[in-house]
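Here is one record:
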Amino acid sequence: RLLNVLNVCNLRDHRESLQPATFTKTITSGFLRKTVNISGRLEKIAYVPGEEILIHAEINNNTGDNLPCCWIRLTEVVDYYSSDGKHMTTRHDVVVNEYGVVPAHNDLTIEMESILVPAIPQSAAFRANS
């Protein structure tokens, strides 16, 4: 988990949520063990509905192959717990931004990409429409 979307509240009351977040991942593939490096940062680790997330990311494709597709997704994950101890998790992609092919031996830099956290969580919208 990289970030949290909290119910409407004053994030200043949750100082830890205002800390910047960074991420890195290295994927190794192929016989020659070439790598794809992914790194980035967010301004903070928690957001409230209606707030804008600014993403800074870089993908370094050091392989000899094109990466067929690159995207950033905002996925809502909801955990349901019942009084009898049962647990269910649902996942819904709220926002998907696609960037297309990343050519072999090339980089993709994403600066200040904006994703708006929906004002009504998808799970609430789903219940309202059912």
Remarks:
- Helices lie at 122-129.
- Strands lie at 4-5, 21-29, 34-42, 46-47, 52-61, 71-81, 87-98, 106-116.
- The radius of gyration is 18 Å.
- The mean pLDDT is 83.
